[in-house]
Structure formats: C-alpha cells, structure tokens
Amino acid sequence: MMTEVQLKNDEDIETAVFIEAIKLKYGYNFSEYSRDHIKRRIQNRLVKSDCNNIMELAHRVIKDESLFEEILSDFSITVTEMFRDPAFFKYLRNEIVPVLESYPQIKIWHAGCSSGEEAYSMAIILKEAGLYDRCQIYATDFNRCVLSKAKAGIYDLESIKTYTHNYNLSGGIYSFSDYYIAKYKHAILDSDLKRHIVFAEHNLVTDGSFGEMNLIMCRNVLIYFEKSLQNKVNHLFVNSLLKGGYLFLGSKETLAHSAVENHFETVSEAFKVYRHHGQIIMGNGEKSC
Ligand SMILES: C[S@@+](CC[C@H](N)C(=O)[O-])C[C@H]1O[C@@H](n2cnc3c(N)ncnc32)[C@H](O)[C@@H]1O
Does any ligand 1 atom lie closer than 6 A to the CB of residue 112? Predict the structure, then answer.
C-alpha cells in the first residue's frame, strides 16, 4: 500500500517535470490540462518509445523537436467529423441560422478546429442558407499538423461515408457528393468552401482575443482542460464575442456554474448554445440593451 502511494506521488512529480520541460523548451503550457489525460498520453507514448521512464522521455523530448511534435499530437486529441453530432447541426440550421440572416456581416471563430471538418460543415450550412458571401470564418488550432490537413481540405473516402450520413441527418438539402470530387482513395472538397475560411495557428492557453465575433464554436476542446483553464478560455471568449454573439460548446461541456455564467443567457443547455447578453447588436449594426 505504502509503495503504491509513493509510486503515485513519483509519477505526479515526474509528470510535472515533463510538462515544465516542454514549456521551457517549446513554450507550450500543458500545466492546466486534465492531469489524468496528460498522464494517460505520456504512458501511451512510453509504450511506443524505447524510453524506460518519464524522465528519460523528458530528456529525449528537449533534444528532439520531431519527438515534441509527436507528443503535441498525443496531447491534442484531434478526433473530429463533418457534421459531428448531426442533431446539433440541425438545431444550428433551424434555430440559429435564421437569426444570423439579419446580420449584414457574420464573423465566426472555430477554436480548436482540428483538421477542418467542423469549419467546412459550417461553410456548407451557410452556403445552403444563402449567407456564405456575408461571412468570414476563422478556424484555428495550436497543432500545425492538423491545420495543414484542414487547409488542404482532402479527406479519406472512408470517412466520407460517415460525413454523408451526418450531413443527411443534419438536414442537408442537397447531395453531399456535390461538395467534393473523389480521386483515388480521397475526397477533395470543393475549393469554393475555402473562399471565406482563414485557417490559422492560435493557442487558447497563450494567445489573445481573436476580434469581435458573432459566433464562436469551441466544441470538444475544453473537456481536456482543468476548471481553472476552462475559466480563462471562457473569459477569452467573452472578450472575443460581440454582445448578442453565440458560443457553442461540445455535448459534454457547459457554461453552467462557470465563472462567466452570468455573462450569458442559456439558449439551449441540450445543445450547449449560449448567448452573450447585454447590448445586442441588431441586424442594421445598431446597438440596443
Ligand atoms: C477533439 S478536437 C475537436 C475538433 C472539433 N472542434 C470537433 O468538435 O470535432 C480538439 C482540438 O483542440 C485542439 N486544441 C487542444 N488544445 C488547444 C489549445 N491550447 N489551443 C488551440 N487548440 C487546442 C486540438 O489540437 C484538437 O485539434
């Protein structure tokens, strides 16, 4: 029993040293990520490596930038899909897009966009609503590797089966195949979908506000953060949203009982849709309370 407690403490200390080494060498701060998540990812990496323990891995990573890139990918779970949670996207189409119709310009930020599927789903929905030419989408992530995939907009044909199913469930009005060309084992998305999307590197832990947005989507990102970091990032969103702007979180995330809860009205707790209240920006650009 004594040994187990001792081992647990040692692992905690070694994990903290590992995180600090990465911060000092590469400037990425994982100290407020869920410790259980980070420990699991380090253990997985140890199994794949020929290192005997965390300290050896820490020593290796400060000498080897390519290993750091792999560890960055380990830490940033990048699983995503087009029209992920189709019922949420259906709600977006039916309930939120009609509100956006009154805006002369629509600025949207996808924070933690992974390989771009979420931003392209938004582009399709806005296109089908006839709003695409009025919108500017910023899609950001701190992982350069997934961002380059996002910019390319090329996905495995295998995944396209799921994406087509999701698109149909989300209330898509055309054939999903209208949005890509199949080539060998890949689907190349229609380049028109990229016309109003800017993909950029942005770290939610260290970088600042992204300007005044009508809508921020940050789904399935905060779940990997400790409460303290969730609160910091939520404040970043408050500062990046126009009054009346929407914040969308993932199905397992919430603003309920958070430090920014009173800045928002809950539009749908089921779909994790929140609206920054206070001064509402009207369609004509006027402000009202
Ligand atoms: C599970 S994916 C979510 C993708 C998409 N939002 C979705 O719901 O399908 C989480 C993404 O958050 C990104 N991420 C994690 N920490 C981040 C940070 N500090 N700054 C920016 N992006 C981050 C990861 O690189 C990853 O691509």
Answer: yes
Q: Which two structure tokens, joined as six digits, stand for 28?
A: 């990425």
Write the residue with the smallest CA distance to atom 7 of ligand 1.
80
Atom of ligand 1 nearest to the CA of 143: 25
229 lines ligand 1 (CB under 6 A): no
Determine the angle formed by the axes of helices 2-26 and 54-63, rounding to 10 degrees.
Answer: 10
- Give the sheet arrangement for strand 180-183, strand by strand: 154-156, 186-189, 180-183
Expressed in angstroms and rounded, the spacing between residue 226 Cα and the centre of ligand 1 is 15
Kindly indicate the confidence band of residue 7, based on its pLDDT and cuts at 50, 70 and 90: very low
Q: How far is CA 14 from CA 11, 20, 55, 72, 182, in A?
A: 5, 10, 6, 18, 47
114 Cβ inside 6 Å of ligand 1: yes
Q: How far is CA 198 from the centre of its chain?
A: 15
The pTM of this model reads 0.92
Q: How far apart are CA 231 and CA 219, in angstroms?
A: 15
Mean pLDDT, residues 229-250 taken together: 96
Domain 86-288 sits in which CATH superfamily? Vaccinia Virus protein VP39 (3.40.50.150)
288 has a pLDDT exceeding 60: no
In residues, how long is the chain? Answer: 289
> Can you give the residue ranges of every domain in the chain?
4-75, 86-288
Alpha helices, DSSP H, located in the chain: 2-26, 35-48, 54-63, 65-75, 86-91, 97-100, 117-128, 144-152, 157-169, 227-240
Alpha carbon distance 68, 66 (integer Å): 5
- Please state, in angstroms and as integers, the Cα–Cα distance from residue 84 to each residue in 119, 162, 183, 200, following that order: 11, 9, 24, 21
